[in-house]
Specification:
The protein is mainly α. Helices cover 67% and strands 0% of the residues.
């Protein structure tokens, strides 16, 4: 068991003891396991993947290799919408 597993176990144990103490304050008979059970924290893989992506984007920006959506826009669209892309909205 590594340090992270130990910390998770201690957190789960503290939550379970807290639920057990609450149960004993209210009820006069022993609880079932489901009444004091505590779910372990779920591993949020999506959040970890987003953090990896954010680090990759940051590294690309710092190196100057990052492309914007304008780099992928065809030339004919850039010409047709250049007024909008520059941020000027003057009417004719």
């Amino acid at each position: 068991m590594d340090l992270e597993d130990t910390a998770v176990f201690e957190t789960i144990h503290e939550k379970m003891v807290h639920k057990l103490n609450q149960y004993v304050d209210i009820h006069h008979f022993p609880p079932t396991i489901t009444q004091i059970a505590v779910e372990p924290p779920l591993d949020n893989r999506f959040l970890k993947q987003q953090q990896v992506w954010a680090a990759q984007v940051k590294a690309e920006r710092e190196s100057g290799r990052m492309k914007t959506f304008l780099d992928y826009l065809p030339e004919e669209l850039r010409g047709a919408y250049s007024r909008l892309l520059e941020g000027t909205h003057s009417d004719k």
